[in-house]
Design a protein that fits this description.
367 residues; globular; 11 strands; 12 helices; 32% helix; two-stranded antiparallel ribbon; disordered N terminus
């Protein structure tokens, strides 16, 4: 679907860039693995409406090391880039039915898995600035893209294929009817991974550790990352968490909970542990609350040969603590801010992509 207003905004951006001083030469390196891993969460949702080509464009321009994103699977089997299981009214608006009298219309409020790609392509997901992100740039008319479309756009802006990727399977084991199943995610995502020039630059992440086990069985060369937070680690009435592939944290030697979490992630052959970096666990002692991600967790993960990349960390005081504790990367809504801090600390940071090139590619890939 052609969105004239988005084209107009892109032309404006290019005109501004052409009128501004050059950013200087763009360095060519083998890939971004050599840099401190600043990950642009959903492209950098603190700066731009999330999970759109525009957000990934600004993630490149801002110098992110890694583009972080989520995948859903449509009713007709297409892998799309979107965080939520359903189309939320806070983020997207209907424009028109894909065909007259479409019984599924309106599409807002429906699950991704119950909509076709053609139906999803009618949505405007670029007009609504989120309340919690008052600095978001909005791009009216921006829509949801397929994973192939995102790869194609970024490959245009990144012809030497330096950028890294952290791609999540958005699957919910508590409500299996809301999303596609484990096998669908693994097979369909893997097919796209291997057909792209970015196969060796992809990390596959999930809160549902069943998909990590299945992906490793399918392709043991692919890097996997075990996401975990208070909702997936802790369960009521001492039940087994549906998120951890049947594992129980208390069955690991620890001795601390932090170490048990690292040991559990290692048991599913994860290469990376990705815990919530901001949640505080309440304590009944006089010492007060403690962070979910601790130095013990990071040290144990490193002992077991895993990296640790906490999410979603937007405060620099917490970024500083985590990096001091040994975190190997930071997933953030403000990659430009964290990159600036990392550079100030003397950490090697990824290069910024030339704005004119990025927006020229965006114009070519916006339909």
């Amino acid at each position: 679907m052609c969105i004239p207003f988005v084209y107009a905004l892109i032309f404006t951006e290019i005109a501004l860039v052409c009128a501004s001083p050059s950013q200087g030469p763009f360095r060519t390196v083998s890939n971004n693995h050599r840099f401190y891993d600043v990950q642009a969460h959903r492209g950098g949702r603190g700066n731009v409406v999330e999970s759109t080509l525009l957000s990934f464009a600004w993630g490149l321009i801002g110098g992110a090391t890694t583009l972080e994103l989520d995948n859903g699977i449509t009713q007709d089997g297409e892998v799309v880039v979107w965080h939520d299981e359903s189309i939320l009214a806070e983020k997207c608006s209907d424009t028109a039915p894909v065909v007259p009298d479409d019984p599924a219309y309106p599409y807002v409020g429906k699950f991704i898995s119950n909509l076709t790609l053609a139906q999803i392509k009618t949505l405007d997901c670029g007009s609504k600035r989120q309340t919690n992100y008052p600095h978001q740039l909005v791009y009216p008319g921006a829509g949801i893209s397929t994973l192939r479309e995102v790869f194609d756009f970024v490959s245009c802006a990144d012809p030497s294929h330096q950028i890294l990727w952290n791609i999540e399977s958005k699957i919910n084991p508590q409500y299996p009817n809301r999303t596609a199943g484990v096998d669908d995610f693994v097979q369909k995502q893997h097919e796209i991974f291997t057909s792209s020039p970015y196969y060796h630059s992809i990390t596959y992440q999930s809160f549902d550790w069943r998909t990590l086990v299945a992906m490793k069985a399918f392709d043991d060369k692919l890097v996997t990352s075990a996401l975990i937070d208070e909702d997936t680690a802790f369960t009521p009435r001492d039940s087994t968490s549906p998120w951890l592939a049947g594992l129980r944290l208390e069955s690991f030697p620890g001795p601390s909970l932090s170490e048990q979490i690292a040991q559990a992630a290692h048991a599913v052959q994860a290469n990376i542990l990705s815990p919530t970096g901001t949640f505080l666990i309440p304590s009944s002692s006089h010492e007060g609350s403690s962070h979910f991600t601790t130095p013990k967790m990071i040290n144990e993960a490193h002992r077991l040969g895993m990296k640790v990349v906490p999410w979603t960390v937007n405060r620099l005081d917490r970024v500083e603590e985590l990096v001091k504790d040994g975190a190997d990367g930071i997933i953030t809504d403000y990659p430009n801010v964290v990159r600036r801090w990392a550079k100030q600390q003397g950490l090697q940071v990824a290069p910024k992509y030339p704005t004119q090139r990025v927006f020229s590619c965006l114009r070519q890939h916006t339909h």
